[in-house]
Amino acid sequence: MKTKDERLGIGIVGLGHIGPNHARVFNQCEDAKVVVCADLDQKRRDHFQKNFPTMEVIEQAEEVFCRNEVDAVVIATPTKTHYALAKRALECGKHILLEKPMCTSLEEAKELVNLAKKLNLIIMHGHLVLYNRAVQFVREGVLRGDFGKIQYLHTSRTNLGPIRNDINVIQDLATHEFSIFDFIFGALPQWISAAGSRLLSTPREDVAFISMEYPDQILVHTHVSWLHPQKTRLLTLVGDKKMVVLNDMDISEPVKIYDKGIAEEPYYDSFGEFQMCLRDADVHIPKLTLDEPLLAQAQAFVNRILKGILTLSEAETGLRMMKCVEACQESLRQQGRRVYLEGGTL
User: Which domain holds residue 96?
Assistant: First the structure.
């Protein structure tokens, strides 16, 4: 345990898309400093060094794990490498922030969590959407009952690429949605059904539609895709009092709350009147202070280690996400049949 005068030494393994951003935000944390970063790819190391000339950059993760000045490690490498790297880091006595998804299988993830408990080390699941103030606002409203009884929820998370070659689109994108649902409802779904296609002739699904049911008969549907003309990050929650739309691509007004009401179909005498037929209800746009979620997650990780403050993405959260992913994979194998999660397990 560090003294109050010492900063937590952070090592970063993986300098692809998210790794350099981890390095940036951890150096902004008051009680932490990035000690060393590693990546096998020379081009990535060179690119990183240009942007962070004062940071030490090396090739091998093993050297990061063996450094005495490194207290905790961020693993931001391809998913297929997570298990081996995380296990080795734990064996070297390092706390871990493990990017999503935790591993390629639920059994691997369970083994890592059990090993961390045995060694009295922290594994935190990297799910920055939980540190998004807009997502937190929606959850707080649900817990207070502001929107009434939740009737259904729909989400869409799409891009035109990038295509991952080690996992499918569910493992890549739907894990974000599963973490949001888990955060809002505080429970696993009772069943999951998934349908997907390989439209780009990839070895894994690049588009998927997932349906599930949460306790109290709350239906949830999500669409994830690497093959879509627009980048979308959209959540629609319908309650019997109010409805909420969270659009994470709208920086200025990410959340809109609609009064509940069904517009009666009027008579109209022209197409113009039909086009102008609008729902008559108030819309409330809350004012939110949007801090950077990745920075908030980094500070939560530091506080977890130094102060013992529980985070929004504990290791058990990661395990629940892995259960949802495995249920989806099983449903895909069974051509979309429902897979039931009884008692919180597959």
Answer: 8-128+294-312
